[in-house]
Amino acid sequence: MRTIVTYETSHGTAEKLARIIAAKLDAACINVNTPYMAEDETGYDALVMVFGFRGPYTAQMTKLFLSRMQGKLKNKHVAVVGEGLFSDKEFPTVAEALTAKNAA
Fold it and tell me: Could you tell me if 23 and 87 are in contact, meaning their C-beta atoms sit under 8 angstroms apart?
């Protein structure tokens, strides 16, 4: 199974985690901030997305990437790995950014 690992990171922790996962899976590892690399990738069977869930910006980037990739994810194995801890105050804000219909 050919796998690609993508990540979005502000502080580098999600990138480190993504690179570890990619190494274990012998997969390509790319940053979603260079989306053409992931979106133009063909022939992969599985996609692992690693995001450092630390605030609404990351949630918005996650949603934007998923909206761009939506048609290409059909019939693929997909895993989303969230790294980071929320406080009780942060979680509702991030959840709203990730699920808001007008965000993407």
Answer: no
Q: What is the mean pLDDT of the chain?
A: 76
Token code pair at residue 24: 């274990």
Distance, CA of 66 to CA of 88 (rounded, Å) = 25
Compute the average pLDDT of residues 61-86: 76
Residue 31's nearest CA partner among 47, 49, 11 is: 49
Neighbours of 13 (CB within 10 A): 15
Radius of gyration of the chain, Cα coordinates, nearest whole angstrom: 13
Q: What is the pTM of this model?
A: 0.69
40 — phi, psi (to 5°)?
-90, -10
Report the amino acid identity of residue 104.
Answer: A
